[in-house]
Amino acid sequence: MQVTDTYNVAIMGATGAVGQVLLEILAERDFPVGELRLLASARSAGRTISFNGSSIQVQELGEDSFVGVDIVLASAGGSLSKQFNSHAVAAGAVVVDNTSAYRMDPDVPL
After folding, report:
1. Bridge partner residues of 37 (DSSP)
2. What are the CA-CA distances from residue 76 to residues 5, 32, 54, 61, 101 (Å)?
3. 49-89 pLDDT, tens digit each
């Protein structure tokens, strides 16, 4: 990943407790977010969440959710990480996964 002025960030599980904390941390640390893509289940899609004074609509998580994303913060549960992380990597994103999906996988760096 190239160093840039801003990074396009996606949060998988954005409406959950961990996703909300990730949003708080990005704001508190003034992380250089370009576009913020909030991803969650179909049930949560359409909700709006406030981030740095903007209202951002939650999108339904799908295989094509990661086009143009630099960094994915995954906190939607292990089964969804296993289903979607490979799509994020294929789209060129760096994935930071907070789930248990790959914790014991020797091929996935901590």
Report:
1. 10
2. 27, 23, 23, 10, 10
3. 999 999 999 999 999 999 999 999 999 888 888 899 999 99
Question: For the chain, what are the domain ranges?
Answer: 7-97
Closest listed residue to residue 75, CA positions, set 8, 15, 18, 36: 18
3-class secondary-structure state, position 29: coil
Q: Under CATH, which architecture does the 7-97 domain have?
A: 3-Layer(aba) Sandwich (3.40)
Does residue 15 contact residue 37 with C-beta atoms inside 8 Å? no
- The closest of 42, 39, 41 to 73, measured between CA atoms, is 39
Q: Give 83-95 pLDDT, tens digit per residue.
A: 999 999 999 999 9
Measure the CA–CA gap between 91 and 26, rounded to whole angstroms: 22
Q: What span, in angstroms and rounded, lies between the C-alpha atoms of 71 and 97?
A: 11
Rounded distance between C-alpha atoms, residue 96 and residue 57, angstroms:
22
Looking at the DSSP bridge assignments, the partners of residue 39 are: 12, 59
Closest CA to 71 of 94, 87, 38: 94
